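Long-time lurker, finally posting.

We've been working with Glucosylceramidase (Caldicellulosiruptor hydrothermalis) and I want a structural starting point before designing mutants. I don't trust myself to interpret raw outputs, so I'm hoping someone here can both generate the structure tokens and explain anything notable. Sequence follows.
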Amino acid sequence: MFKKIACYITAQDQGNPLRQVDNTKECDKIEKESVITIEPSSTFQEVIGFGGALTEAAAVNILSLLPHQQEEILRRYFDPKEGLGYKLCRIHMNSCDFCVDSYSCDDVEGDSELKYFNIERDKKMVIPLLKRIKEYCPDLKILVSPWSPPAWMKTNGDMCHGGKLKDEYKKTWARFFCKFIKAYKEEGIDIWAVTVQNEPMATQVWESCIYTAEEERDFVKDYLGPTLEEEGLSHIKILIWDHNKDIIYDRVKTILSDKEAAKYVWGVAFHWYGGDHFDQLKKIKEEFPDVNLVFTEGCQEGGVKLGSWELGERYAHEIIGDFNSYTIGFMDWNIVLDTMGGPNHVGNFCDAPIIVDKDQKKIYYQNAYYYIGHFSKFIRPGAKVVKSSCSDARLEVLAAKDQDDTLAVVVFNKNPEEIEFSMVIGEKIFCGKSPARSILTIVLEK
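Top reply, 14 upvotes:
Generated this for you. Predicted structure of Glucosylceramidase:
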């Protein structure tokens, strides 16, 4: 059935990460109490890939390094062989907290015709880096998310501290999306999709803008969707919500129950900050089977904790839970931060898979980088998630089948003890070990 088995492991206090080991072998019978069952014929959603956000902060950090170090980071993320094989990238339209300061692409008060719209700021760092990234990943899918419209379009006259989009500027704001997409196209960068608003229920000290479910529904239905069509951009995918999972079902139901709004909505974007709530994702997919679920942001807050093993474990738990709940793509937050966890213009420092010391010109690969790689390197775009289960609640499992029927099984153990397991795939039985605090990817080729 399988002509080749390869195993890759990352474990706490056990040497090189993502190293190949002789860990799992074929057995005659089920020998262990912990039994993993994989059903390759029972397939679910098709995966579009993994990725992360190229914020202005990430760009500043990458460009602070020596040229060969810059190239190393881009290669280690986006090259499918030498790196993680990232296929997705999120960027911000106007500033977000992970910028040097607050700005928009049109800060001219009352410019409803957007005569002064420009992306000069993006041309300095983000766009040149995107061009370099596309050398490794020509078919990169770029997602655009706004944190706030320009201050003059808002009820509070401020890009930060919440506020709402003024009614008289809703059409202008929809056109703003179009101008941004077209300006990037002129630079040779194709945009794949947009979210309506980053975290539309959060009033933050950084860039933020509030939409109720009804307001987001109506903006998509009456402004964003029709305007993209008018501007010849109907191929641009629209994702709603872009916030946590705790109330995601009710929010999505309000929007997708309206057929005139739903016809413009390709997907639902979500973050991890409000807890697991994987059942909410399943509920959405069961009621609205045509909608696509995409994880668009997650990071460990509170600054950098170099060497923290919990960092990678948080990613593994999220990815397994999400993809076992119909998610098709996963985007990390900042791909690179500095040793403070910034730059961030309001001091909202966070952690990231790669940390750079700009002064010492050093690059630190955290375990999150390798934990994500256990999925992204082996579960490639076009693969389909397959049914998997485990009799032992201490192990978390995700399995996917590639287009050539190669099977990738990821086994995650966050416990302090080694767990031996039997794995059943059809009539075949395998025996393996999951070391303490480890993640294991088993690749079975037919």
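Before you design anything, note these points.
Residues 111 and 293 are 35 Å apart (CA to CA).
Residues 4-45+385-445 form a domain with the Immunoglobulin-like fold (CATH 2.60.40.1180).
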